[in-house]
Design goal:
By secondary structure, the protein is an alpha/beta fold. Helices cover 47% and strands 19% of the residues. The chain has a seven-stranded mixed sheet with strand order 1-2-9-6-5-3-4. It has a two-stranded antiparallel ribbon with strand order 7-8. A two-stranded antiparallel ribbon has the order 10-11. A hairpin with a 2-residue loop joins strand 10 and strand 11. The structure holds glycine. The site of glycine has 5 residues, from loops.
């Protein structure tokens, strides 16, 4: 078990990482006035654990599983049930689930009586390595992801690998997508990933690398909590193209799209002379150890145009990408939408040739 402390100008979070952290720290929460937010999938696996840890009468809101729950309807349902349950300003909202639960429960905690204590208990690899840390909370609105939200740091995060045991392999690949992204931002993480490239799903390895990613993120958030000076923006490596593909082609998990996005963006960065060589080959090996075959897409120009909505863009006609440069360093590139679309099309053509010849 290891702890990471994340300090910002206004808050301090303690992140407990590793085996047995749930058993060690969750029972302490029982002394507080708790309100649990979870989803149907998680509740079906952990109903007994929730009751035996927090007591059978703890109020629980059970959301539908998946992104469709991240709406105003469920946000207000949580807040309304908190009021019905008599929650006071001293209560603690516990987000027990993956990224969606963390985002919406975090926003509810931020809004209820102008802010009550929040504890994140992330149960997916993705939420453990990334979304439960750093205080981003949001719901989707008008079909735009995370349009309504706030920065609101949890008091505690309990990241216990015990919850990964019930995860389907798609969810593990999803988390590995974000982990490999951290590898492109942090030379020490990259080295460990390469050394373990045939072992990425191993429990002990995942424990260690999860801690490293959380540490990296905590440092970035400490330097740039509100995403204002460019440090936190680097955490979006692979995400511009990944989000555009996710929106247009669906089906794979978010983390897999991050890896696919990274692959396409590295193609562009290489064309522009920003990165390449053995470093890029090694990154591609890591990507293809999770995504066996990087897809070539039809209609990729349309997907390129949908990247215009990405929040990193400072102008509506330009696309901003965070790309790997050298080990431990990324670079930001800005392209016109037309030139971005051309590069994506070129990458698709090269993938088509490659995939057909294999
Ligand atoms: N997932 C990126 C961030 O928290 O800033």
């Amino acid at each position: 078990m290891k702890n990471v402390i994340l300090k910002t100008q206004t808050a301090e979070s303690i992140i407990h990482c590793g085996a047995d952290t749930f058993r060690s720290y969750a029972p302490e929460l029982k002394n507080r006035q708790l309100f649990i937010v979870t989803d149907r999938n998680v509740f079906s696996f952990y109903r007994e654990l929730i009751w035996s840890t927090f007591g059978g009468s703890v109020p629980v809101v059970i959301l539908p599983a998946g992104e469709t729950a991240k709406t105003q309807r469920y946000l207000f349902e949580i807040i309304s049930k908190m009021a019905d349950a008599g929650m006071t300003r001293k209560c603690t909202v516990v987000a027990f689930g993956g990224g969606v639960v963390g985002d919406i429960a975090g926003l509810a905690a931020c809004l209820y009586m102008r802010g009550v204590e929040l504890v994140q208990i992330p149960t997916t690899l993705l939420s453990q390595v990334d979304s439960s840390v750093g205080g981003k909370t949001a719901i989707d609105f008008k079909k735009i992801k995370n349009l309504i939200g706030a920065f609101y740091q949890p008091k505690e995060v309990i990241c216990d690998p015990v919850f990964l045991k019930t995860l389907p392999s798609r969810e593990m690949r999803c988390g590995l997508g974000e982990i490999i992204k951290y590898g492109a931002l942090d030379a020490a993480i990259f080295k460990k990933l390469l050394e373990n490239k045939n072992n990425l799903y191993d429990g002990k390895f995942l424990d260690e690398i999860t801690y490293d990613c959380i540490n990296h993120k905590a440092q970035a958030v400490t330097m740039d909590e509100r995403d204002l000076n460019g440090v936190r923006k680097t955490l979006n490596l692979g995400h511009t193209t990944g989000h555009a593909f996710e929106l247009n082609y669906g089906r794979k998990s978010h983390g897999e799209f991050v890896l696919i996005g990274m692959y396409y963006e590295m193609f562009i960065a290489e064309k522009l002379g920003i990165g390449g060589g053995a470093y890029y080959e090694n990154l591609r090996t890591l990507i293809t150890s999770v995504i066996k075959k990087v897809p070539s897409y039809d209609g990729v120009r349309e997907a390129a145009y949908s990247a215009k909505l990405d929040k990193k863009n400072e102008s509506s006609s330009k696309i901003s990408l965070i790309v790997p440069k050298i080990e431990g360093k990324s670079a930001e590139i800005t392209l016109t939408v037309e030139s971005y679309a051309n590069y994506l099309q070129e990458c698709c053509a090269s993938l088509k040739d490659k995939n057909e010849s294999n």
